[in-house]
């Protein structure tokens, strides 16, 4: 039996927990999710991927944030889980579908040697009620809000989950750490939001810093890359094919009409079992 597997996508690390392989009955509540993800008291990760949950020949899984909440979608999480179901023989084709809280995503394995995986991330929308955002506008593009006593221009998009994007001449980790948590929990976002700070390098390249909802400062994020790219594209800063540079590495985003495609590598780290004393904490209600 194996209790957990660990993978990462450009430094964005996830623990995969397969309910069919657990050696005990895991209580997957908020407290236990936080404990497993804790980098001192647990295994340590940016989240948990729980699955596969197979019903009617459909493979679904849950994306759980380290604060105990459930995410609708994660570009890195999806690619990691795609590699897991390939590794464990749940799928044998190079093209298949997975299901998250946000619905179906299409998977294509581009290169098995480098674990390069392409995901159809679905359609994007800047419509305020679809994100959702409490602002008096239809599309949330170049909207002004007050932040720390100053006016800031924001853009917001839904790509299966909500994102707030600020385009800057220069970005930094310090900027993400300062403004990220404030924007994540801002009153205009009823479901909170992911936050990206974007620096446009040229028509084919952007750089981003990421504050992830429920996880905090993050080295890489697939949905963040897509959200940032869609925003820069709609505002005519970039073309429809773009390389996104993050602290953890690079991914490639292609925008065709309203649909967004994400391509990037993922890597295996380890697999293991929970110690008996740790399991005792996880089976308590």
TrEMBL record:
Database matches in InterPro entries: DAP_epimerase_DapF
Keyword Isomerase attributed: yes
SUPFAM superfamilies in the record: Diaminopimelate epimerase-like (SSF54506)
Binding sites annotated in the UniProt record for substrate: 12, 65, 75-76, 161, 194, 212-213, 222-223
Marked site (Could be important to modulate the pK values of the two catalytic cysteine residues) residue numbers: 163, 212
GO cellular component terms, semicolon-separated: cytosol
Catalysed conversion reaction: (2S,6S)-2,6-diaminopimelate = meso-2,6-diaminopimelate
Keyword field contains Amino-acid biosynthesis: yes
GO biological process: lysine biosynthetic process via diaminopimelate
Gene3D superfamilies attached to this UniProt entry: Diaminopimelate Epimerase, Chain A, domain 1
Enzyme class: isomerase
EC number: 5.1.1.7
Location(s) in or outside the cell: Cytoplasm
One example GO MF annotation: diaminopimelate epimerase activity
Pathway annotation: Amino-acid biosynthesis; L-lysine biosynthesis via DAP pathway; DL-2,6-diaminopimelate from LL-2,6-diaminopimelate: step 1/1
Keywords: Amino-acid biosynthesis, Cytoplasm, Isomerase, Lysine biosynthesis
One Pfam short name: DAP_epimerase
Function comment: Catalyzes the stereoinversion of LL-2,6-diaminopimelate (L,L-DAP) to meso-diaminopimelate (meso-DAP), a precursor of L-lysine and an essential component of the bacterial peptidoglycan.
Family: Belongs to the diaminopimelate epimerase family.
Summary of subunit composition and partner proteins: Homodimer.
NCBIfam families membership: DapF (TIGR00652)
Identification of the protein by name: Diaminopimelate epimerase
